[in-house]
Amino acid sequence: MKNYKPILEKFFKNQLSSPEYKTFLTNLKRIIKKAFDGHFNRHIESLFAKYYGPDYLKALSHELLLKLIDKKNTILNHTFIHENYLISVVVNLIYYHLSSDFKTVEKETNFEDLYLSKDPEEEENLKLEEVLPKLTVDHLESLRLLHIIEVLKQHLTPKEIETLCCYVLNYIYKQEAECKVNKNVLYKRWERLKPKLRAILGYEIFEEISPYKLFELIKSELC
After folding, report:
1. Beta carbons of 102 and 170 less than 8 angstroms apart
2. Is residue 196 part of a domain?
3. Which of 20, 128, 137, 215 could staple 16 via S-S, CB 3.0–4.6 A?
4. Which of 107, 127, 161 is the last residue of a domain?
5. Segments forming the whole domain that contains residue 57
6. In terms of Cα–Cα distance, which of 136, 164, 144, 174 is closest to 222?
């Protein structure tokens, strides 16, 4: 019978190594699947797959991490954390989404919405990095970045991707990238592309993520 308290203590203290963190997430996904199988029918699980997509277990595992952090003091007061305790947290999370008709899922999560404090005065001074272990913050940001890349792939034409790559390589990385058009044409294409990028990504995108990491992903995944 596994005691999850030691791994949770390390998680709360940001002491998990990257392999330990990945294993922990894998276990959480298994527990979430077990909660679905033991407490709900396949139709309910299919609803979550519909709203979250094929990676619904991964998405729910990240929400579960936030719930566990919210219950940090309670968890630390226990000497033993049984898997059934985690399953009960998952079941409550599932019921929460069902009762809200998935309204919280339909709104894209913003890092600023992840505050766990209920005190408005505390919320003003609270930063995400102070609430979540750094490894979790990095993981959430990586997921956000990968999502952005997928959105760009879906919404940009090949010519627009070429324009984006030429701009990033030439003006961000100062590389002599081989573009099929001259600088004047590239400039005009870039000016036409900017409003579309703003519409896709939003004006606040660089407040939420690292521009450097985004450009690195654009360079490696699109160019």
Report:
1. no
2. yes
3. 20
4. 107
5. 5-107
6. 164
